[in-house]
Design a protein that fits this description.
There is one protein chain. The chain is an all-alpha fold. The chain is built from 4 helices and no strands. Helix 1 packs antiparallel against helix 2. It is flat. The N and C termini lie close together (10 Å).
């Protein structure tokens, strides 16, 4: 079965946003961690670096939502299901890790790790959907 023209177009639009934003994210985080001394840099520089690193990820999330809006009902349902399952898995992990942290079982966990964690769980949910299904 071939994809409809609309689906291919939506995927191309998504990739046109995803690839440059992921490249920008990689460059921003590399530059920030290499050239910014966290002990001596001003608050403005550190704040700018944090925003510059986060904005491409926000653009990727917006691209995912755009992809969901531009696809057919079945694909939309699968994407939204994967997004919600990823959110549930992340929230469950946050609960467990938060209580382990609160009761001093594990050290403090940096909050920024939960963003990549969401993408990881979203990917797992998407992979789970595709395994063993023929439709």
């Amino acid at each position: 079965m071939t994809q409809s023209k609309g689906f291919r177009t939506a995927n191309k639009r998504y990739m046109r946003i995803f690839v440059p934003m992921m490249a920008l994210y990689c460059v921003a985080i590399s530059v920030a961690l290499t050239f910014i001394d966290l002990d001596t840099a001003s608050t403005g520089v550190r704040m700018g670096a944090a925003v510059a690193i986060a904005l491409p990820l926000i653009a990727i999330l917006m691209a995912i939502l755009r992809l969901v809006r531009e696809t057919d009902e079945y694909t939309r349902m699968r994407q939204l299901q994967a997004l919600s399952e990823g959110g549930v898995m992340l929230t469950g992990a946050i609960f467990i890790l938060g209580f382990l942290e609160r009761f001093n079982v594990i050290p403090d966990i940096p909050l920024f790790l939960f963003g990549p964690g969401f993408f990881f769980f979203y990917g797992l949910a998407h992979l789970r959907q595709s395994l063993g299904k023929t439709v």
